[in-house]
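Lab meeting, action items carried over

1. Structure of the two-component assembly. Owner: GW. Status: complete.
Input record:
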Amino acid sequence: DQQVKQNSPSLSVQEGRISILNCDYTNSMFDYFLWYKKYPAEGPTFLISISSIKDKNEDGRFTVFLNKSAKHLSLHIVPSQPGDSAVYFCAHHGQNFVFGPGTRLSVLP
Amino acid sequence: DVKVTQSSRYLVKRTGEKVFLECVQDMDHENMFWYRQDPGLGLRLIYFSYDVKMKEKGDIPEGYSVSREKKERFSLILESASTNQTSMYLCASRPTSGNTGELFFGEGSRLTVL
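Predicted assembly:
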C-alpha cells in the first residue's frame, strides 16, 4: 500500500521569500503526484502535478521536484504571497488517490 | 469550468439520526468519490463509484453507504450518525481519461453530530 507523508504540519514564511513544502512516499509504483491547495471552508483545488517520468514540473510561481531515489517530492513557491496561505496536500495517483495529512502554510506580510 | 455541488455546506445532527449528503457534478464524469477530511489525517476515501449503480469501498467505509442512481449524482448516507462522524465531507469527480487524473472537488459539507 502507498503511504504519503507530509512531516511538517505547518510552515511560516515571509512574503516574497521561498516556501518549500515536502512530501515523502513509500511505494515506487505511481503514475502521478499532485498538489492540492485548500482554503478553510472550501474544497481542495488542484495546483500542479508531476508524472513518474519527470523530475521537475513548473507552472508560474510553482515548481514541483521529484527525487525518485529518495522517494521524495517538494513544492516550491517563489515568491510567496499572503494569498498562498492555505493547507497544501500532496496526493499520489496510482490505482487510486492517496493523500498526505497536509501542511498549513502561513505567508506573513 | 467543472462544477461539483454539495447540497449542504453545514449540518448539525443528533446521534442516531440518518444523514444524507448529496453531490452533483455537471461535467459528465464517470468517477465520483466521497472523502472525509480531519485535522492531521488528510483526506480519507470513504466510497467511490466508477459508473452508475456501481460502488466500491474506500479506506474507511464503516458506518457509511452510498447511492449512485444517476451519473451526475452521488449520495453519501450515514444510517445512524455518531459523534465520531463529525467531520468535513468532500465530494469529488473526475473523468476516466483525458487528463492527469486530477480530482475536482466540491466545497465540502461540514457535519457536526451532537
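2. GW to write a short summary for the group page. Key points so far: Chain A has a mean pLDDT of 92. The two ends of chain A are 41 Å apart (CA to CA).
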